[in-house]
Each structure stands twice: as structure tokens, then as C-alpha cells.
């Protein structure tokens, strides 16, 4: 049920007249759910702001949360969820902070002593309005969290595929984590671009940090090596752990004439021996 | 019709392909290059494809043919400057350009040719054991 203009106006008056008591009661209830993870002063400030938001929305006779009078309130709620999400509060803790507003209002109404059917009706209408606000908070919370996760995934992709220069003419790619198609593509492009940029004829692909090598991962690595060869650079695969070596053989993966070494040091020594022989 | 210029630098012929490799251009280049190798007596050919966005199977085959013709005329061929995107596309298509030696840039290509030459001279001086292509492995099928 939506809030009628009369009800909204009546509550706007209640919120205005009893603001002190209301905010105090509300803050106490929220503080108990957050178990002291947010300071009392901070909560008091937030709730004072929000009370003003609610009061203004109701004074503007907001029927529901989507209307124009509630625009300011929506912005405040979104801000609240965004801060809470970043501070590591759970979705429930965030939403309950808004739900507690209902208890505070009820306590205020009790104190007023008006307990007729009209008050009940009013209260139920307000309750649904607050519910809507809490759901909106929940939605914003989830959205902020999803943005955070997407950002982190992107950062992880950036972080996990560095190409480092190991020696004059030798670059290395230490692969860490599971190699799926998307990452393999990023690794391949970045490695090849680095080869061109630095003019390095040797690349070492180190798979120490790759937890498992299946046929698909092997295929990705092979493609990278073949592409590098097409461009005129040679790749060495290093960091093959005993377990991985057994898996490779069991799966029947053929690395052909691609040099494979057990450690990065071996691979570097191998490359240096080859470049040394050529008198570079 | 456009032509690809062939430049002589010391003992090397440098071909820098800056235009789209249409079939006629490729065939003309093949002819011109054979003429120039004989005329100059050069022992190395560097083909720079860093300006090429697309290398299709025809261009690939032409490059291989040029390499084979040069070999007959006692000149080594190195294809240099292949772009990463081109290499990735070739690998995805399963084209591996057999019979073509590659290097990252012109400088490394010249190094490679110098080494090949030195190895060939050594082999001629000592007993020929034919292990001269251990330097750059052939590209295996992906």
C-alpha cells in the first residue's frame, strides 16, 4: 500500500516534532546491530541526515520512493550503501539500519500515546515506504559490490600477466594462477608486443604458478610459442613441477622441439649458453 | 602497377613491403628479386613486413617461394617485423609459414644472416655436417 498525501504530511510533522528522540532511538538500534564497528557519532550524523531526507520526502508528499520528492533521499541511501559496502559491512547490516527506522517511529508514536485505528493505518503505510527504502539500499549495496568485484577482476588480470626483462635480449613471463582462454589471450598479446618493443629474440614462459596443466592450457602455451616463432623469437618453457610433468605425459601432450626446463634458472642458463655460442 | 623497391645494403638486399600485397605485386616482387640477386651477387635477403596488416595464405606461399628461389641462387632469406596480430591470426588459422626464417626486426635479421654466413663458411672450411639449421628451429604445426 502506498502512502497517501495526508499520511505523508502527518508523518512529516511527527518526524519534525520528535526529531531528537527519533534519531537517538534509531541510532541506538542501529548501533546494537553493527556491534560497535561504526562510531556512535558517525551513526548519529548519518541518521540525522537520513531523518532529514525522510522528512523532506514526506513533506513533499512522496507516494513512493521512485518519485521526484524522494530524489534527495534516494541519493542519501545510495551514498550510505556505497560507504557501507566499501567498509565491509554485510548487506543485512546495511538494510537493517534502515528497517530500524520503523522501530524508532513506532517508539515515538507510542510515546505520543495516540493508538487509534488511523495511527495503525498510517504506520503500516509508512512501514511499506521504509521497506522500499531498505530494498533500494540493498540494491545499491549489491551494485557497488559488483562494481568492486569487476574492478578487482580487471586489476587481477593486469597484475597477473607481467612480462619482465630478465637479461639483454631475454624476457620472461611468470604465469600465476589458472590459465583460461581470456587470460591466455592477454598473455599472448602482451608477450608478443613486448618481444617487438624490446627486440628480444628469447622469451621464457615460466609456469611455476600454474596450478594445473590440461590439454587446453597446453594448447594456449603452444599457440603462444608458435606465434612467437613466426615473429622470429624463440620460447622456452620453464618451471614444470614433477606433478605437472606427469600430467603432461599422461595426457599425451607433445611440446615438439620446444625447449622445456624444470626451473627458470636452467632456462636462463640455456638461453645464455645459446646466445654466448653465437657471440652476441 | 605499384612495385616494391629492393635496396642493396652491403651484401644484403632489403625489401620493405609498404603496400598491400596483391597477387600481381607479389609475383612481380618475386621476379624482380631473382633478377637483383643475380645482378648484385648478394648472399642475403631481408623482407620487412612490419607494415603489413594482413598476411594470407597466398602471401605466405609467395614468401616461401621467394625464400626457395633465393636459396637456389645461394642467398638466405629472413622475414622480419611480423606484427603480433598477424602472428596470432596465422596461428589461429593454422598457417605456420613452413620454410621461412623469421626475426623480430631488421637488425636481428642481419645478425641472423651474418651467423648463417659464418656457419656456412665454417662448414665449407671444415667437414660439412649439415647441422646448420639448429640455430632457428622450424615452426611446428600448432
From TrEMBL, chain A:
InterPro entries on file: Bact_StressResp_Reg (IPR051932), RsbRD_N_dom (IPR025751), STAS_dom (IPR002645), STAS_dom_sf (IPR036513)
Superkingdom per UniProt: Bacteria
Domain STAS: 160-271
Keywords: Phosphoprotein
SUPFAM superfamilies: SpoIIaa-like (SSF52091)
Protein name: STAS domain-containing protein
Organism in which the protein naturally occurs: Paractinoplanes pyxinae
UniProtKB/TrEMBL annotation, chain B:
Transmembrane segments: none
Pfam family, one: STAS
Bias-annotated ranges (Acidic residues): 121-135
Annotated ranges, domain STAS: 2-113
Region (Disordered): 117-142
InterPro entries to which the protein is assigned, alphabetical: Bact_StressResp_Reg, STAS_dom, STAS_dom_sf
PANTHER family given in the database record: RSBT ANTAGONIST PROTEIN RSBS, RSBT ANTAGONIST PROTEIN RSBS-RELATED
Annotated protein name in UniProt: STAS domain-containing protein
